[in-house]
Design a protein that fits this description.
- Chains A, B, C, D, E, F: Pfam families: Tautomerase (PF01361).
- Chains A, B, C, D, E, F: It comes from Azotobacter vinelandii (strain DJ / ATCC BAA-1303).
- Chains A, B, C, D, E, F: Belongs to the 4-oxalocrotonate tautomerase family.
- Six copies of one chain form a homohexamer.
- Chain A has helices spanning about 15-30, 60-69; strands spanning about 5-10, 40-45, 50-55.
- The longest helix of chain A is centred in the middle third of the chain and has 19 residues, at about 15-30.
- Chain A is elongated.
- Chain A has about 70 residues and is an alpha+beta fold.
- Chain A has a single domain (about 5-69), classed as Macrophage Migration Inhibitory Factor (2-Layer Sandwich), CATH 3.30.429.10.
- The first copy, chain A, has a two-stranded parallel sheet with strand order 1-2.
- The interface between A and E is medium-sized, with 25 and 25 residues.
- Strand 1 (about 5-10) of chain B pairs antiparallel with strand 1 (about 5-10) of chain C.
């Protein structure tokens, strides 16, 4: 049944999404020894203002590096 | 507490979303014998380029069938 | 494709899970007019110490009511 | 590793998102005694037609109250 | 940032989980052209009574096939 | 409505979970200016063999550091 939710920053092309879905399906199907048709992938894109590491988003981390350099 | 996340392809009307939310709430509330007001439903829509079965999205599966017929 | 994640407190019997899965599948399939075989349901159970409303879990809310009565 | 998915109704400003991400990161880091840089937060916004309590969305609940008053 | 949640039926060995995590990380990193250290994978296992296709779990589908054959 | 899913490695005590839930609820409620009773938190614990960074789990990363030192 593998059901795979992929969260990524927006900005990838449809071509990249197709490529990553194909590659992940192959990887899962081989590693778990299950049919590719049982693998489902859901992609959710997040805007930069919707992803935080250490409480900062990408723009905030860039500003921080700027100020520290 | 049932909290229910529904992932679906985009394209449903608001009317359809209201109908499915009402029907699922009733189903959960009756089957689990809990108050409807404890049931929360979150809908997330995915574009066609964001859902893959066997590593292919809807357009790719249609192309494949086309070529095979 | 509807893929449905249901979060619920642990303690339901297998029979209840089967019943709620069957009822929700029927509700989704009818309301969205899609084949039942396209509906996938994932249940995740949470212990009482893993679900909080207003920052309190079930035991804490019971204590609070006790003290307030 | 704490990875935190926050679902909220759309309409918050970027400033509010930054503020909630910073506050939650601090809260998690202190309460679990782990480095802030291990905390990741993903925000997913939902339109009003995508969130239901007791089978009703915000507009439907407002109508209901209207009719009952 | 890719953050990947993998839902699978329980029963895989730790060795299989390590293998699938390594393979998926490599696939994502190559297809999206991002560093492997930015890829995080969360595995959630589900018991057979917690996964339904067309409203039936694995045991129920086996019974059905039995009865139909 | 904020609904918050927290994924963390298993091993935290119930006391720590209560503390983090209370702290996150307060942070969200203040930063988003919404009532604490609208905030719901779901905790999901993952075993060490179920969380991977750069394709390696905690034990594998420790081994790697060991070998590199």
């Amino acid at each position: 049944m593998p059901i795979i939710e992929m969260h990524m920053l927006e900005g990838r092309t449809d071509e990249q999404k197709r490529r990553v879905a194909a590659a992940v399906t192959k990887a899962v199907s081989e590693a778990l020894d299950c049919g590719a048709e049982t693998v489902r992938i859901l992609i959710t894109e997040h805007r930069e203002e919707e992803f935080y590491v250490a409480g900062l988003n990408k723009a905030q981390r860039a500003e921080l590096r700027e100020r520290q350099s």
